[in-house]
Design a protein that fits this description.
Strand content: 25-35%
Number of helices: 10
CATH architecture of the largest domain: Sandwich
Shape: globular
CATH topology of the largest domain: Tumour Suppressor Smad4
Number of strands: 19
Order of helices and strands: EEHEHEHEHHEEEEHHEEEHHEHEEEEEE
Structural class: alpha+beta
Largest sheet: 6 strands, antiparallel
Number of domains: 2
Helix content: 25-40%
Distance between the termini: 36 Å
Length: about 325
């Protein structure tokens, strides 16, 4: 935690921008490759709102995705020292990378949603319209927001192992070929689901309960909106300070397609081939074996390799996020 950062907000506190919650400039980390919006047009629209409000700001464009982490870390340190805020302008993957740096530095955080699904922004009522989202940076209030963590890497929406990371990788390939839209994402997901998938044999420990499971994918959710949309009763647990653990029992490709249809209709939680439970911390291991295997883990759409065991938990620190003020 940076020594120059403002003290973190208590878990239930709120502070408005008008009350001096943010004294310094807004450092806007812009990912031009997020979503289908034109980056130059987006920049002009955001700047028009902030200029009209007299709000000091600076755009930092990320031309090379490999540099995103370093750019975000530099901006977070500057914001912590100046009393400003770092703003992530992009999709959930961009928001995740910037949020990681913000948590490390202890500064304030804002979001301009520019991705395909924008689960994080929508959950916290941040408009998908850019001008309206920019006004939140001027008129909003800071609220503490729960963050998930797996082996030291944060996630705001979800983390997963097994089939779901594969689905995300293939979806990203399809988006590069056919464009970034929800239709492309949907068709790509169907293609992935209709193939056979490796079954993972895992040991799970949650609180005092331990059990062995066989599953093609294990999903840990930290986003109430996404969980509600697929029909999981555990959606409410996120607001209570827990994570939602979801696993699928092994099924055929057609059975997987049926589960996907249930999720689309908001009825996944009713399926016999789904198990789920709330948990503040989950330990995942492979059981026996001399060398723990590596698995692909997805965090907010970004895929990387991790070696088992995995420890999912609610992170001890919370994001200090600029959210819209309540309606009068």
């Amino acid at each position: 935690m940076n020594a120059d950062a403002k003290p973190a907000l208590p878990a239930d506190s709120v502070q408005s921008v008008a009350e001096g919650a943010i004294d310094g400039p807004l450092l806007i980390v812009l990912n031009p490759g997020s979503g289908a919006q034109d980056a130059d047009d987006a920049r002009r629209r955001i700047a028009a709102v902030l200029d009209a409000a007299g709000r000091a700001h600076e755009f930092i464009a990320v031309e090379d995705p490999a540099q995103l982490g370093g750019i975000a870390a530099d901006c977070a340190l500057r914001a912590a020292a100046s009393g400003g805020a770092v703003v992530a302008a992009g999709g959930d993957g961009t928001i995740n990378a910037v949020a990681h740096a913000v948590l490390e530095a202890g500064c304030r955080f804002g979001v301009l949603p520019m991705g395909t699904f924008n689960y994080f922004g929508r959950t916290h009522h941040i408009p998908e319209d850019l001008e309206a989202a920019a006004r939140v940076l001027v008129e909003g209030e800071l609220r503490p927001v729960q963050v998930g963590e797996v082996n030291g890497r944060i996630f705001l929406v979800n983390a997963s192992v097994g089939m779901y990371p594969q689905l995300l990788e293939e979806r990203e390939t399809a988006k590069r070929q056919f464009g970034r839209s929800r239709a492309v994402a949907f068709v790509s997901a169907l293609y992935t689901l209709l193939r056979n998938h490796r079954v993972l044999r895992l040991w799970l420990r949650c609180d005092d309960a331990t059990g062995r499971v066989e599953t093609p994918t294990l999903f840990v959710g930290n986003n109430r909106l996404q969980l509600e949309q697929i029909g999981m009763a555990e959606a409410a647990c996120v607001d209570a300070g827990a994570l939602a653990v979801i696993g699928l029992r092994p099924v055929s490709p057609l059975g997987m397609l049926a589960l996907a249809l249930r999720g689309t209709l908001g009825r996944l939680g009713d399926a016999d081939n789904v198990f789920s439970f709330p948990c503040a911390a989950l330990f995942v291991s492979a059981g026996g074996g001399r060398r723990p295997p590596r698995v692909k883990v997805a965090t907010d759409g970004e895929v990387l390799w991790m070696r088992l065991p995995l420890q999912f938990r609610v992170a001890p620190a919370r994001l200090q996020l600029l959210c819209p003020p309540p309606a009068p």
